[in-house]
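# nightly structure sweep
# worker-07 picked up a monomer target from the shared queue
# config: single-sequence mode, recycle default, output format = structure tokens
# input follows
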Amino acid sequence: MDASNNNRSGPALNGTGHHMAPADVDFSLVRGVESRLVRARAALLKESDQAFSGLAVSTNEAAVLTAIGKSVANSPTGLSEVLGVNSGFMSRLLNRLENKSLLQRSQSTGDRRVVKIALTEAGARMYIRLEQIMPNLLNRRFGRLSHVELVELNGLLERLIGE
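# output follows
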């Protein structure tokens, strides 16, 4: 048996029944996984852009509207953290959405330094429309996987994220 077969048996189970990462992670395998994650994200973004093209919002703008609509975040800082973008990019996104009258910014009554973001009436309608589009969009991409595979993928991604 050569050294390249050492990692083929997969990770061992620890005492809790969870898999432990092997001591020597195969860097080329990890790079392949990373590359496929990037390509999968790119494919989903391309499909999202196509699905949202008739709505006059970009995929990034839709992500902001969705995060606000789902009450995931309501401040520029919170949105930047949730969406994984820097504050400058978030500021430009918020400016575009405000110019489209889809959201409004206001100062917090408790602390004037804090900016709160809310959907306008038009923004709330756009959020509802996005929520109607998302199931078909996601089903086209993720419908290729069985329920068991989706559950497994979700668990694996949670472990990669660290949650």
